[in-house]
Amino acid sequence: MKKAIQLLGMFSIVLFVSCSGSDGADGERGFDGEDGINAQVFEVDNVNLIYNANNNIYDETLTFIDYTSFEVLPEDAILVYRFDSNITFNDGVVQDNWSLIPQSFFLDGGTIQYTNTHTSRDTQIFLDGNFDLSGISTDFTDNQLFRIVILPGEFLSSKLDKSNMAAVLNAINVDEESITRISMK
């Protein structure tokens, strides 16, 4: 009896494996997908940080919807760079000098630091210090230029050197010439 059941089982396997037929009609063609935007970069010029005497800080909030239609997700990283100056090299090449925030300066009166916080709707840029900031030079507070880089969350785990502006732009395939500059004035 065991042999008959085994023989029947083997016959069933051969029968089902050897069956062939139509694999069914192909479905409708889907829509061609659009290339997804992996990151967004824009600059905000003429930013004036406002002094808050109660907290002894300067700050300004940049709301993303004012500068881009790009949807920022809660898991995205927001990098904020501050423009320091143009650097002219001996061979005549001029290059922009950007610093990733946080950025510290050591002054005669003490230390100041640019920092930022963000949500999926905005970023708030602060200038904080360990002394009375009410008389600080407007070179640190007025007409500032910031570059905002919105990176998908997947970049957070990468070994990308986020302090290196060229490396960041290269990783997200953005050319300097394509970056939009928006003035607050």
Short description:
By secondary structure, this protein is mainly β. Helices cover 13% and strands 37% of the residues.
Query: Mind summarizing the main beta sheet?
Result: 5 strands, mixed
Count of strand segments: 10
Strand content: 35-45%
Instruction: Report helical residue fraction.
Output: 10-25%
| Sequence of secondary-structure elements | HEEEEEEEEEHE
Category from helices, strands and their pairing: mainly beta
Largest sheet, spatial ordering of strands: 5-4-9-1-10
In round numbers, the mean pLDDT is 84
Helical run tally: 2
Assembly category: single chain
* Rough outline: elongated
Q: Distance N terminus to C terminus?
A: 93 Å
Uncertain runs with pLDDT below 50, 5 residues or more?
A: none
Q: What radius of gyration results from the CA coordinates? A: 29 Å
